Amino acid sequence: MPELLPIPLQLAWPFALAFAWIAGEFGYRWTGLPRISIYGLVGFLFGNTLAGHLPEEETQNLMLLANVAFGLMLFELGYRINLRWLTTNRWIAVTGGVEAIATFGAVYAVAYWFGTTPLSALILASLAMSTSPAGVLRVLNEQNSSGQVTERVLHLSALNCVLAVFAFKVIIGIGVFQTSGSLLHAVWNSLVVLVASAGLGALFGVAVPALLRRLGSLTRDATVAFAITVILLVAITHAFNFSPVLATLTFGLVARHRRVTLSQTQRNFGVMGDLLTVLLFFFVATSLKWDQVMPGLVLGLALIAARFVTKTIGVAAFAHVSGVSWRKGLLTGMALTPLSVFAILMMEQTRHVGVDLVESLMPLTAMVLLLEVIGPIVTQRALIWASETPDIPET
User: Fold this and answer.
1) Is there a contact between 189 and 173 (Cβ–Cβ < 8 Å)?
2) DSSP, residue by residue, 337-372
3) Which residues in 201-223 are b (16+ Cβ under 10 Å) and which e?
4) Could you give the C-alpha distances from 26 to 22, 126, 195, 213, in angstroms and in order?
5) How crowded is residue 102: how many other Cβ atoms within 10 Å of its Cβ?
6) What residue spans of 50-147 are helical by DSSP H?
7) Alpha-carbon distance 319 to 287, whole Å?
8) Can you give the C-alpha Rg of the chain in angstroms?
9) How far apart are CA 174 and CA 255, in angstroms?
10) Is 389 helix (H, G, I), strand (E, B) or coil?
């Protein structure tokens, strides 16, 4: 009998992914809730049911696939950013900067007031600045939304992402210096990583469109070429401990401004994008453990409240001067609620830099679990209330 045990465990991931997809489809049709919220809930239940029993090798392989899925979404987000709009309406960039910095301050103050150590509070604050681009983008694609709120959410989430990566890497550099005493090691894990990651993404953003033009297949082969490049970028950045978040986002941003046009299906990477979406949101939720959620639940709820209020008010405060009504400003701020996937994958990248993040893990785990399920729902509701979602779930 013991010899038979590895067989069902090897089948656990495929069956669980299939169940998550089925649950997501029926859940969306019956309740209208975002599919990714249901993927996350199923993943959390699966991870806690088989915790400690899943093959480590399979888990590591799925982590790599999850990072590729996240990279594809970051590329798409970068591709959809219009820098000309940001320069024409500078108040949008001001909005993103102010609300991100205000969120950092508010979350740090709450975490520190609860007795969290300064370094852990800084880490929580830097991650809270961000809005998960994967969560936002999948809800926007699922709802087929368009309009002022949609475009502002896309651009603000990209700004939040860049600012959060910058703050997180600098704080990790400080942590590395405190741990190792090596200034060179600290600088490498912060500023050098940021510059190298952005430079790598920009290099591929110029080179790949140029190659496609040279081959005469700019429109036909763009999707495959960009997907392969994202996989390559994720592999390179992981091998050198760079930031795949910044590299893939920069790649998409530069590629868009090299005049490469993608159709709507290509933007979403078609069936491959849908498949990797199930894996990404399901897998991230499996890493959240119930015994880590409960001890940090109270602080996690306080941090979520501080983050939600600060982002909503911060965006609404600049709504009128940036060209929209106060109501749409509030809805835009609400739509920036998703956090989960970004935070977990960012934390995963710090495992080998020598910084002890155990103290910040419990409230972060509680935040991630709640926002994994609730965040996409809030974004969906905000888009519906803004009348920017023409499609309704099939019944």
Assistant:
1) yes
2) ---HHHHHHHHHTTTTTT---HHHHHHHHHHHHHHH
3) bbebbeebbeebeeeeebeeebb
4) 6, 36, 44, 43
5) 17
6) 56-79, 83-88, 90-113, 118-128, 133-143
7) 37
8) 20
9) 33
10) coil
pLDDT in tens, 234-274: 999 888 878 888 899 999 889 887 665 555 445 567 777 78
Q: What are phi and psi of 237, to 5 degrees?
A: -65, -35
In the three-class reduction of DSSP (H, G, I as helix; E, B as strand; rest coil), residue 232 is classed as helix
Enter the DSSP assignment of 54: S
**Amino acid (one-letter) located at 180:** S
Q: How far apart are CA 107 and CA 109, in angstroms?
A: 5
Residue 146's SS3 state is coil
User: How many CB atoms sit inside 10 A of residue 187's CB?
Assistant: 14
Q: Which amino acid makes up residue 326?
A: W
Amino acid present at 385: W
- Each residue of 333-392: pLDDT tens digit? 999 999 877 787 777 666 655 555 555 567 888 888 888 889 999 999 999 999 998 854
Closest CA to 179 of 348, 347, 352: 352
- How far the first Cα of the chain sits from its last, in Å, is 45
Listed residue (315, 382, 355) closest to 103, CA to CA: 315
Q: Decide if 153 contacts 379 (C-beta within 8 A).
A: yes
Predicted TM-score (pTM) of the model is: 0.88
- Contact indicator for 222, 47 with CB cutoff of 8 Å: no
Number of residues that make up the chain: 395
